[in-house]
Design brief:
Rieske Iron-sulfur Protein; 1 helix; 6-stranded antiparallel β-sheet; 4-stranded antiparallel β-sheet; 37% strand; mainly beta
Amino acid sequence: MVGVLDYGFCFGAYFVGDDVKRVTISRRKVLQVSLSLSGLLLLNSVRKFLGYQEPAAQARQLTLDAPEAYAVGSVTAVPGGHCWVVRDEAGVYAVTAVCTHLGCLVNHEAGEFACPCHGSRFRPDGSVIQGPAVQALPHVAVSRTAEGLLRVDMTQQVPAVERLVVG
């Protein structure tokens, strides 16, 4: 083939009778495949960045002060527990400090929980005041130890109405 320019990449050859046939892929096709793979890698990185991220390893069962040490209306951060202990008129309960939107840790500000990442706001009982979060903060199990101390079990979620009666 005299006078024909071949800009393809040769990936091998095979014989058909006495002729040798080359297996080629055009540069345009190589570029299309490369750009497609690059786009997929970029999309995967964006998915990981924006997706929910499981919080770092934390203590699963925490033993705290006696329930009577928490005043009615108090909201107390549990050190290293990623949760808050709240006492209301009905008793003591614990809500996780992990925002249900993307997993940031919420802060307690002016009588409510606030996510510093995207602005979600929650009532002390964990219910949503303002999004982007649409789910309430989960409640976790609270019980008394044999010594009368408060135990928070982060592995067990409970209904939002459940309280440990103090009295």
